[in-house]
Write a structure and sequence with these properties.
α2 runs parallel beside α3. The strands form 2 sheets. A 6-stranded mixed sheet has the order 2-1-3-6-7-8, with helices on both faces. Strands 4-5 form a two-stranded antiparallel ribbon. The chain has 6 helices and 8 strands, in the order βαβαβββαβαβααβ. With about 160 residues, the protein is of the alpha/beta class. It has one domain: Rossmann fold (3-Layer(aba) Sandwich). The chain is about 40% helix and about 20% strand.
Length: about 160
């Protein structure tokens, strides 16, 4: 499996990459700091999963979302944001995002979510390696009914 992280905060990007690569050593990871770099990697790297920040210095993560879905509708796109705003949720839903995660969601919950996205064998392998593995639902599935959207509000790190 391949994951592309489009994030312009070098600190947040590095933290996620370090933790994800440690927990999922078989997952191929690539990063982009801009919309243009993200689009190039969508074509060259061909990710199965894309995590994209909504607010990027060079544009909007929604540009990445549209580009990914236009090139491979089966790619899972997860929108990341530090701002839990209704307009972001609505735009994510209308643009075709699969999931919406608030950046202050506990990292263990994000890792559990990612494990659920990966193949059953990889998820089982990781669950056996970690006592903190959880099948909690810390994210929102973007659905047709916005009232059903729930994001676990977490304690800020």
């Amino acid at each position: 499996m391949r994951l592309l992280l489009v994030e312009d905060s070098n600190t947040y990007q590095q933290i996620l990459i370090d933790i994800i690569s440690d927990r999922f050593p078989l997952l191929e990871l690539e990063t982009a700091n801009s919309v243009s770099q993200g689009k190039l990697l969508v074509n060259r790297f061909v990710p199965d999963i894309v995590f994209s920040d909504i607010r990027l210095n060079t544009g909007s993560g929604f540009e990445i979302l549209k580009y990914v879905k236009a090139h491979n509708a089966n790619t899972v796109v997860v929108m990341l944001t530090g701002f839990d705003l209704d307009e972001y949720r609505t735009a994510a839903k209308e643009t075709g995002a699969d999931y919406f995660i608030i950046k202050d969601t506990p990292i263990e919950d994000v890792l559990g979510f990612l494990a659920d996205l990966l193949s059953p064998v990889e998820s089982l392998q990781r669950s056996l390696l970690s006592d903190s593995f959880s099948l909690k639902n810390p994210y929102s599935k973007v659905t047709d009914n916005l009232e059903c959207l729930k994001t676990v509000k977490s304690h800020s790190a």
